Amino acid sequence: MNSNKPSKKSVDRTDFTELPASFSASTISDLINSFLSHRGADLQLSGAEVRKFGAQYLQILLAAQAAWRTDQLQFTILPMSDELTAGIELLGVSPELFSDQREITP
Questions:
Q1: Which residues contact 99 (CB under 8 A, 6 or more apart)?
Q2: Are 99 and 78 in contact (CB under 8 A)?
Q3: Of 4, 13, 55, 96, which has the fewest Cβ atoms less than 10 A away?
Q4: Largest Cα–Cα separation, the chain
Q5: SS3 25
Q6: Dihedral angle of Cα 61, 97, 92, 27, to the nearest 10 degrees
């Protein structure tokens, strides 16, 4: 039987990075480039320093998470600052969306 579901890629690394404290026009490019440099590996982000969070920030995170899910790789944000958690909730998304997978220890 041939399944259309792709098999999970063999992952030999987990990358770790921190989210910027705030999201602005100057950080968009840096954040996207950072995500692109980590493609092909499980990625755990620290949201501990996030102080300002809005819809554009969430949009970037959701797009990145979708890319990682397509690759069948983990994309988690642990830990999350109170501001990050509140911002995600305010925009109607459950913060658990980004932490429903196992936490990876460096």
A1: 76, 77, 78, 80
A2: yes
A3: 4
A4: 50
A5: helix
A6: -20
Amino acid, res. 51: R
In three-state secondary structure terms, 14 is strand
pLDDT digits 0-9 by tens, 48-106:
999 999 999 999 999 999 999 999 999 999 999 999 999 999 999 999 999 855 444 44
Pick from 6, 73, 8: nearest CA to 41: 73
What is residue 36's three-state secondary structure? helix
pLDDT tens for each residue of 1-58:
333 333 445 556 889 999 999 988 788 889 999 999 999 999 999 999 999 999 999 9
